[in-house]
Amino acid sequence: MGRLFRLFGRRSNWALPYAVFLVIFVVLPLLLIVLYAFQDAEGNFTLENFVHFFNQPEVIRTFVYSVGIAFVTTAICLLLGYPAAYIMSRMRSNSAVIVVMLFILPMWINMLIRTMATVTLFDFLKMPLGQGALVFGMVYNYLPFMIYPIYNVLQKMDHNLIEAAEDLGAKPRQVFARVVLPLSMPGVMSGVMMVFLPTISTFALAEMLTLNKIRLFGTVIQENINNTMWNYGAALSFIMLIIIGITSIFTYRSKDGNLNDTGLI
Q: For the domain 57-261, what is the CATH code?
């Protein structure tokens, strides 16, 4: 008991379970993906998996199409989410909490169940399942991930800056463009990242909302893994990880740049 007390007596040691969790369920799977990506079926080092990817025009077209769908979904979520977050940030606290809960409540239901409900809705309205249903389903599922980060930043914004700009003669459009929008960009970047990255790699939504008529890059990875083509599937996953990493780097750089542009840091 004394050793246990000394172990957890320090606050820093409380992070040990989280560190163990990260090593087992995050770091180790990523290392296995990298390891399998650069191996053949016999375990020898090779780059053939990546060569095979660039020699398959259909897979490359699927990858480009997936990126395009992710961009469209993210853009629509941003166009819908930013005004909603801005309006909620201007509401009274009690009313804002109610509206936020209305956006979050659907997230308590499993995504696959929500997607099945979307399929039923399209069937009830006698609308065909396809690309439109896919984009609609993605926007419906990921819109809260865009709204909440933006709302969180706007809510914590120092309103004295807005009042100062108005006292200096700035018009409402100028206040929004020169004060509100730059200060909200960290939330926008977080929302873009939380929407773009999952949509570019999803496969279940595409299968259900298009009846397997449209294949996304995540579908290609899933098919190779299910067909025991571990090495090629790992190579495709590694390519996806590179894209996610590059997106993350540019996102965080954009956050810093926008904060610097406002002259606040």
A: 1.10.3720.10
